[in-house]
Amino acid sequence: MPSHSPALSRARRGVGVSGPGAGRPLARNRGLRRGGLTLFALILPSIVLLLLINAYPLVYAARQSLHQGSLIAAGDFVGLDNYTRVLTSTAFWKATRFTLLFTVVGVFGSWLVGLGLALLLKSRVPGRGTFKVLLLLPWVVPIVVSSTAWNYLLATPDSPLPRLFTAVGWGNPLFLADPTLAVVTVCLFKVWASFPFMMLMTSAALTSVDGTVYEAASMDGANRWQQFTGITLPLIARSTYISWILMTIFSVNDFPTIYLLTGGGPVDATTSLVVLAYRTVFQNFQTGPGVAIAFLMTATLVVVSVLLYRQIRKSAVE
Fold first, then answer.
1. Cα atoms in the 13 Å half-sphere on the side-chain side of 203
2. Which of 238, 228, 239, 234 is nearest to 197 (CA)?
3. Which backbone phi and psi does 266 adopt, to 5 degrees?
4. E strands of the chain, at which residues?
5. pLDDT digit of tens for each residue in the chain (318 aa)?
6. In Å, what is the CA distance from 159 to each residue of 93, 156, 162, 166, 228?
C-alpha cells in the first residue's frame, strides 16, 4: 500500500498543516481587526462630540415642543397640543403659503438665471473672467449690506427707484409697504442673492460635459434646443438636483433676507415659517408652539430632500 505523508494524514484529521505561510491569513485577519478597533477608538471621541453637539439640542428642543414653557423653564407637559395649536392657526398657514412661494421662486428663479449665465460664460465672451467675478458679488457681499442697499433703493417714496417710477409717470409705488409688492420684492431679492450659487454649480457641471457629444449631435442634425434638452440637461441633472436640495434648505431657513428687508410685514405678507417661529419664541415667549413650527419645517425639508435625492439616483447617466 502506498504510504501517506504525515502532512496529508494531519489534514484529513482536520489538523492544520504547518509551514512557512500557514499562519499568515489568521495573522492578517487579527491585524485587520486590531486596525479596525484602533480606527474606531480614534474616531469615537469625534462621534461622541457630534452627538453632543447635534443630538442633545435636538432632543431638548423636541422636549420643549411637548411642554408649555418659556426660554428659561420647560413648563407643564401638554403632549401634542402645541402641534394641534400650530396646525389650526391661520398665521401658520399664511406663513406656509408665503414660504412655499418664496422657496419655489428662490429655487427655480435663481436656477434659471444661473443656468443662463453659466451657458453664456461657457461661450467665448470677452472678459468672462472679470464678468464671472462681478456676478459673484450678490452672493459674496454680506446679506446685511445687500438688504441695506435694497432698503435705500426701495423703502420710502423718496428712494431712488420710486422717484424714477414717478418721473416716468408710473406712479409712486410703495415696494415694501404694499403687501403684494413686498412679496414680489422679497422674492426678487432672493433670486438676486442666490443666482451666483446656482451659476457656480451649473458651471462646474458643464465643465464635465464632453464637447465631442455636441459635435456628434450636430452631425446627426440636432439643433441647439435639441442639444440643450437632450444632452445638456440630462448630463447636468445630478448637479441640478443637488443644487435644488441645497437651495430649498437655504430658502426655507432664510431668516435674514426677509427679516432685514421687511421684518415679515406689511400685515404679515412676507412672514415665513422661520420668521413666525422666531416671533413666537423670542417675541411672544411661547417656546412650545415656536419649536413645534421649527420641527414641522424640519420634517417637510426631510421629505423634500429625500424625494429629490431619489431623483439624483435615477438621473445617473450610464
1. 19
2. 239
3. -80, 150
4. 67-68, 76-77
5. 444 555 445 444 544 444 554 455 555 666 567 767 788 788 888 888 888 888 888 888 888 888 888 777 778 888 889 999 999 999 999 999 999 999 999 999 999 999 999 988 887 777 777 777 888 888 888 899 998 899 888 888 888 888 888 888 888 888 888 899 999 999 999 999 999 999 999 988 888 887 788 888 888 888 888 888 888 888 888 889 889 999 999 999 999 999 999 989 888 999 999 999 999 999 888 889 999 999 999 888 888 888 888 877 776 544
6. 33, 5, 6, 11, 42
Scan for cell 404694499, then name that residue. Answer: 178
Distance in angstroms (rounded) separating the CA atoms of residues 118 and 198: 9
As a whole number of angstroms, the distance between CA 100 and CA 88 comes to 18
Predicted structure pTM score: 0.80
Residue keyed to cell 431623483: 311
CA angle (81 as vertex; 85, 94 as ends), nearest 5: 20
User: Does the structural domain 81-314 have CATH classification 1.10.3720.10?
Assistant: yes
**Is 301 exposed, middle or buried, given 0-12, 13-18 or 19+ CB atoms closer than 10 A?**
middle
In terms of Cα–Cα distance, which of 135, 127, 122 is closest to 197? Answer: 135
State the residue for C-alpha cell 464678468. 131
